[in-house]
Amino acid sequence: HFAAVEMVPGDPILGLSEAYVADTRPGKVNLGVGIYYDEQGRIPLLRAVREVEQALALEAKPRGYLPIDGLATYNVATQKLVFGEDSPLLAAGRVATAQTIGGSGALRIGADLLKQVLPIAKIAISNPSWENHRVVFGSAGFEVLTYAYYDAATHGLDFPGMLADLGKLEPGTVVLLHACCHNPTGVDLNAEQWQQVVELVKERKLLPFIDMAYQGFDVGIDADATAVRLFAASGIEAFIVANSYSKSFSLYGERVGALSVVGKDRDEAARVLSLVKRTIRSNYSSPSTHGGALVSGVLNSTELKAMWEQELAEMRERIHAMRAGMVEKLAAAGAPQFAFIQEQAGMFSYSGLTKAQVDRLREEYAIYAVGTGRICVAALNRANLDTVVNAVAAVSR
Ligand code: PLP
Ligand code: TYF
After folding, report:
1. 211, 347, 265, 221: which is closest to 94 by C-alpha?
2. Which of 167, 245, 270, 291 has its CA 20 to 30 A from that of 149?
């Protein structure tokens, strides 16, 4: 049966982590995978999460199935976080939300949903984008196009190129947009630029699909959702948001995310939810209980939500401090050309390092980065910063 199966190349980012684990050199640093590490180099278990987890352990509740669309308290809290407490869309009942298996599950359920209803299955993703966007939408039967995004010359946004490419898309094309903390570049749109994209998308009758995997990792929960809020206020009848709590709750392995589909009115949203549920049923039937209960427990307690917001703020402030420290130290080490790292947002920076330089970092200095030059600045800390800076300065000479 399987004789003809060929070896499929693995995920390059996750493959890097395997190589890192196998590396026996002391002082090795993994700037590859997108995970937030604390000052001690550990994946944090947030205090707010721990509180809920301990309470849940004491309750020792039975583990029946969740509904197909997940925990209702989780979905309602998610809607408020994504669309805002006072969102008119929520008041109008226009949003259908389902708990999913991480942000990845939301992308896949969203893709499978759209494939069933759209007359053309085309999606445009940014150049570059998270590689799984292409994999997920391609596997769901979409033709995957790209739009200009990153400008290597400025290490910033090619906004004219982006508008020009979006303006050429066929009406009905899905446009995948990163809400904030763009993966892999760290380059985001400002509010004025978002507003221009909203207007173009509206005029060209495109269907926005917003991927929000890093809400709260740059400026704050509401500020980082600017794209969602502007689309919501635009009068556009339909758009989609996939959000993930993997990073914002430091719950990577619990697989917590949600898919929210905005419809024209309450009735349309109800019909869409029925199709979302059938799509989930045909994939994995229902999501798992534990991660959703943790997130819901935090978001539905005033006290724990405030604690979580504080912990999230600490994570993003630490990232900002690491960006600033890296830029300052690189300049002191004779590499002032990296000042742009401080302008980029979130966990990642497209550092501009070439494949050859990345190879040298790994081979000579045991520092792991993605071949594209993407580094995870959220893996820097006071103990490894000098090592990284000196190595980057050395390979840049
Ligand atoms: N979207 C982007 C842009 C991401 O970087 C990630 C990261 O993992 C995801 C989606 C998927 O999130 P999750 O790990 O919750 O599936
Ligand atoms: O881009 C990253 O590093 C994260 C983690 O197949 C990730 O989004 C990477 C690859 C992958 C799944 C998650």
Report:
1. 265
2. 245
